[in-house]
Design goal:
The structure holds 2 protein chains of 2 kinds. Chain A is mostly helical. Helix content of chain A is 74%, strand content 3%. In chain A, helix 3 packs across helix 7, helix 4 crosses helix 8 and helix 5 crosses helix 11. Chain A is globular, with a radius of gyration of 24 Å. The longest helix of chain B has 21 residues. Classes of the chains: A mainly alpha, B alpha+beta. Chains A and B meet through strand 1 of A and helix 4, helix 16 and helix 17 of B.
Amino acid sequence: MVGEKKYLPYLLLIPWLIGFLVFKLYPFINSFYLSLFEKLSPRESEFIGFDNYRKLFMRSDFFGGQFINSMKVTFNYVFFTVPLILIVSLLVAYVLSKKIKGIGFFRTAFYVPTVLGANVAVVLLWRELFESYGLINQGLALLGMKQINWFGSSAGAMTSIIALRVWQFGSTMLIFLAALKNISPSLYEAAEIDGASKIRQFRVITIPMLTPVILFNGVMRLVETFQTFTSAKLITNGGPLDSTRVINLLIYQVAFENRNFNLGSAMSWILFVVIMLFTILIFRSSKYWVYYQD
Amino acid sequence: MKKINIIVMFLFLILVFIGCSNNESTKTLTDQETISFSWWGTTDRNIATFKAIELFEEMYPQYTVIADQSSWDGYQTSLYNKLERGRESDIFQVNYNWLYSMDGEYYFMDLNDLEFDFSNWPEDEHRPLTINEKVLGLSLSETGYVFYLNWKVYEDAGIESVPETWEELIVAGQRIGQQSNGTKYALGRLDAQQVAILMFSWLAQIYGKNIISDEFKLNYTREELAEGFAFINTLRSNNVLISSNSFDTHTVGPTNPNWVTYQNYGGILQWNTAVSEYENELPNTANLITAGMFQQNKGEKLGIYKKVSMALSVSKRVDESESKKLAVKTFLEFMVSNEEAIIALGVDRGVPNNELAYNVLRESTNPVFTDTFEWQGHRIVQEYYNNQVSLQQDLYIHPYYEHDVFRRIYEIPIEKFLFNTYTANQAINDIINNFDSTLESVTRR
């Protein structure tokens, strides 16, 4: 019996372990191996070392030019999306942490977009909303405002896919909400006795107390937005003029549509390193701005 | 008891042996074969293909066909994947240039090994489908870019005759613009691929050249391209094309409301095999007509680029089984030579170029195929092409012109030009700087 109990946890881990080895670790290692080769024919590849990586940083190379453009687009997307998600979800969580009538309904309503996710139906609906004659432009017209050519301009198209991602702030909001509930009311009471306004309380108590959660949410959203794909693929397919061809979309097109798995793998590895560097950078910087109570 | 068991077993074995040695039943067993067939298509093509498969299975009950239909989106990627994993259908529909981009020589069976009879096709028909003397696809039809007009847009502007020359098209554009306060266009919005072929057709009418030379280089000089881009600008400033593609943010293609609902666009430039997608979306108030290819001078018939529209290829796996080979050959022959199948398939894969099928469709009175836009477009393409050949101009779409990677070399600069974020000079610079080197790299693979 003791022996059985000893091995039981490992037995229960086997399904996960198989999934991890087959679908995560093996492709992870194999993609690096693939990135060092160039395919000459269906069954013949040549070892070229880091030549694929070198090519990707050369603007004069066709794929290099595409890659550099896509990295720029991705940075653009990430640097607008992540702060916006954090700000919007924190503000909504702050409001929902108050005792308001029908709070349960509002919490559910704000979480619904996250449940729906960036699935095909939602993305296509989003496309309809932002069309020339879509609901957004009709709304602008009703307000007497100038209609916007969302998918006809680079800025408009990027705005529409950022808006879709920010709209799905529910899970980030829930984490903020839980953290807000954990801040001791005594801190606010003491601040009120000292005459601190609500805004000052938010700035000097709420924000510092939330910094560990801001760090967590920030890193999670950063990793996730660097890998965005569905909205760029289905709403704009990278257009107009490659302005929304985020890196994951380019990797898909190069690897699966152009059958260049070697170059696609090299791109994936560069993306992996970039995400890792940013994550390390944020963690390293956290000692200057994250406040741990203990 | 044991003895009885042995005797029963012995008798059973004799019966099985006799049963198996019966010639008739052996024949039935070995003739049974299942073949798979995949294609992409819209509803009309799917219905037609299923009907033809049904007819085939009725005529050859020993064969079963597993049909795998899909839409155009994702078909190519999926086929690529299947080929690499050896999971492709026995017979699959391909675009002719895939023979080159998909390493067809490696994955596709040489149809000569099926001992297929090509005598019904024109002699040169399978030349583009042949690599190193291996015929890798069975041609179903040929296609070319043809202008189709929504005549209602022209009628509303008081235009009485169909433009034949570019000059007449420009005058029509001006007229349509004036009558509609600039909201309607003689053509409207064309995408980068369509504008590219429009420009190269216009240039071909002047210079009589293919886009890619026999040495696999860009066949046009900087000055010639500058003329082409200047002509596109003329079309844009005269209400033939919209002045910037950024002004139309709808989905490009047949469902664009400016084509369907508002009928602001007076024409399309489309493969004659794909016109039904646009035709089917138009409401009854519209009036689609075939305009052919506009010319530099009245009466000329030049500037048509044609290609094999699509083909049926066979998996190399089929070669491993004689009975499968026979089944596949029978199926292919049936699809292109059985009268009922030909009628059922109609022109949903274009007007067939094999003489037998062509004649069956031409003679058909119910339905009448010669009235279709596909047929009219096909007739124009062939007529213009034959005229060009008589003038020693053999214009054709090069197998690498539409290569997934290579096409972006000219499409991206042209798209930027159409969105007004690039000048003609910038677009030409990009094309000239990258054309030859990228073509070399994609053909080397």
